[in-house]
Amino acid sequence: MKGRFITFEGGEGCGKSTQVKRLVDHLRASGIEVVVTREPGGTRLAELIRALLKDEREDPPCDRSELLLFLAARAQLVRNVIRPALSAGKWVVCDRFSDSTFAYQGYGRGLRLDDLRRMNDFACDGLAPDLTLLLDVRPDVACERMRRREAATNTVSDRIEQAGDAFHQRLRAGFMELAAADPGRIKVLDANGSPDDVWRSVLETVNKAWA
Ligand code: T5A
């Protein structure tokens, strides 16, 4: 028995975490055993790596260190959480996975995609999602959501969120290229609408994937 592996992807402020929660609640209410996790994170070591990646003090990781830290966190999560859950027949819903590395470190930072694919394959030991929901938002919509969240939670954007407009444009275009190259797995959803609108598309896409 093998479970199913669903990932959510997108740029900053696309609303992934909101939809991950809705999907997990829905699947559990339907009687499906679901493991929900996120990247980077999801194990003790991977959460420590997350804290290192988010550390705002001096000596931020260079592009290659950043890549290696994301991959180290992923290797740990795949080995200790995702593979065992899938082998036990559970569904796994993960907030970001390999496509974030291709988009952020590849299209965003400019590291070579060929290198990233080989290294990522090594880190994941070949594991790829069955279905990826790519939430696409316009930059102005994403900016407004981030601004509102910062005001509501009294927080400021982090190192990666502050990477600049050109970076975020490359990121969005990169995600679209990834989706165009793998349309069977990566489904692009318009995420500019309300949480309810986006949820309807998420549900429809998941239902269609295993109809
Ligand atoms: N990263 C990650 C890499 O560079 N390489 C990698 O390999 C990986 C795995 C992770 C960072 O690491 C980078 C990407 C990221 O920069 P994170 O803190 O986990 O950092 O950040 P995100 O994954 O971007 O998650 P966020 O929680 O910040 O954003 P989400 O999940 O897109 O959005 P969400 O749901 O929290 O919503 C954001 C705000 O908008 C509102 C929400 O209430 C919230 O306030 N909202 C909506 N408002 C209006 N309409 C909707 N439809 C809305 N949906 C949500």
Which band does the percent of strand residues land in?
A: 5-15%
Supply Rg: 17 Å
How many H/I helical runs?
Answer: 8
Query: What structural category do the secondary elements indicate?
Result: alpha/beta
Tally of individual domains: 1
What is bound: which ligands?
P1-(5'-adenosyl)P5-(5'-thymidyl)pentaphosphate
Roughly how much helix do the residues carry, as a percent range?
55-70%
Biggest sheet, open or closed, and with what strands and sense?
5 strands, parallel
Judging from the principal axes of the Cα atoms, what is the shape? globular
Layout of helices and strands:
Blueprint (H helix, E strand, L loop, with lengths): L4 E6 L5 H14 L4 E5 L5 H11 L8 H25 L3 E5 L2 H11 L4 H12 L6 E6 L2 H15 L11 H17 L4 E5 L4 H15 L2
Bound molecules: P1-(5'-adenosyl)P5-(5'-thymidyl)pentaphosphate.
Structure characterization notes:
With 211 residues, this protein is of the alpha/beta class. The chain has a single domain, classed as P-loop containing nucleotide triphosphate hydrolases (Rossmann fold, 3-Layer(aba) Sandwich). 57% of the residues lie in helices and 13% in strands. The chain is built from 8 helices and 5 strands. A 5-stranded parallel beta sheet has the order 2-3-1-4-5, sandwiched between helices. α1 (16-29) crosses α8 and α3 (63-87) packs parallel to α5. Bound molecules: P1-(5'-adenosyl)P5-(5'-thymidyl)pentaphosphate. P1-(5'-adenosyl)P5-(5'-thymidyl)pentaphosphate is lined by residues 10, 12-18, 39-40, 70, 96, 100-101, 104-105, 145, 149, 160-161, 194-195, 198.
